[in-house]
Specification:
Largest sheet: 5 strands, mixed
Helix content: 25-40%
Structural class: alpha/beta
Order of helices and strands: HHHHHHHEEEHEHEHH
Strand order of the largest sheet: 3-2-1-4-5
């Protein structure tokens, strides 16, 4: 603190100019704090109250905004907005409302969704799946399997739009033509991050087991631990499992398919390969996805499980209210 240094140097008998040079301030600043300390002691080093205009909005105003956000929005509106808050408060400018929301990082538009698992065996199932990620059995292959159904081959007009300022934007038309759908079966190898994928018209049990036959053929004479969600076609396949004793199914808890790592890859596929693209035929869509899978496998890396704890939080007395 510069004020304390000034006082300490002055106590050593230093001149005002030498103190100013060492501390890096003007000589008049040194004189000010020397005199303030001499007249008032340590209290003299504190800032004095400064005259000025009293703030229009105080902490009480902030509390009123927060209290209003806890209430439902006006009838007919889905959510609060800055102007609605200012109107409801009556004596607060909308610009201050926006500044307050920004300073407290309150986003009136963003929404979060959640899914609660009511599986009574949540802990055991989650530990089983996570255990395969962090400590896979020796000499065994761990696979995450699921389907991405009804991927549409949408044909849209695409191109570049040149603005008057010379800037070019990519875009596509709002109208489109449907050229069919495909269901993508995918298996992610946990140890390598590589993908095995195939297309199907439907996602019935027969298509699922056909895909599993191709997966087992890829890893002959290897023990396979397959992580699946609770889709009905994934269950009640005891006859197939008896015919494939090297394969063991592990199911995620109910409403917890996010534990399946292949869901992460489906999100990557959507963002990097499917969003914003146009296809003139179903075959073109399938070839496009296959090309992406091949390119992805060339640089594939395993996902690293970093979450230390997986909890099942129950909401007591939870209810859904209509506003």
């Amino acid at each position: 603190m510069k004020r304390a240094r000034i006082v300490l140097l002055a106590a050593d008998g230093r001149s005002t100019r030498s103190i100013a040079k060492e501390v890096g301030v003007q000589p008049r600043i040194v004189s000010l704090w020397r005199h303030r300390y001499a007249d008032h002691g340590l209290e003299g080093l504190q800032d004095k109250p400064r005259p000025g205009k009293q703030p229009i909005y105080t902490k009480t105003t902030d509390k009123r905004i927060l209290k209003l956000l806890d209430k439902p929005p006006p009838q007919g509106f889905a959510r609060w907005t800055g102007p609605l808050l200012a109107e409801a408060l009556g004596d607060v400018d909308v610009q201050y409302v926006w500044r307050f929301l920004r300073s407290h990082k309150i986003d009136l538009v963003a929404r979060k969704s959640w899914c609660e698992s009511n599986d009574p065996n949540f802990t055991a199932k989650a530990a089983d799946v996570v255990g395969l990620y962090v400590a896979p059995p020796a000499k065994a292959i761990v696979l995450c399997v699921d389907e991405k159904p009804s991927i549409q081959a949408l044909e849209r007009a695409q191109g570049y739009l040149k603005l008057p300022n010379g800037r070019a934007l990519t875009g596509q038309s709002h109208d489109y033509k449907r050229d069919g759908t495909t269901t993508l079966f995918a298996a992610l190898e946990v140890a390598t991050g590589k993908i095995i994928a195939t297309h199907s018209k439907r996602r019935r049990r027969v298509e699922f087991l056909d895909f599993m036959n191709s997966v087992t053929a890829t890893f002959p004479n290897r023990k396979l631990h397959v992580i699946l969600d609770n889709l009905n076609t994934h269950k009640k396949n005891e006859d197939w499992l008896k015919a494939h004793p090297n394969v063991q199914f592990h199911f995620t808890p109910t409403s917890a398919s996010w534990l399946n790592q292949v869901e992460v890859w489906f999100s990557i596929l959507q963002g990097q390969s499917l969003s914003g693209t146009s296809f003139t035929s179903l075959k073109q869509l399938q070839e496009h996805i296959d090309a992406y899978v091949n390119a992805y496998n060339d640089r594939a890396e395993p996902f690293v499980w970093t979450k230390k704890k997986v909890r099942q939080r129950r909401f007591k007395g939870r209810r859904i209210t209509q506003l």
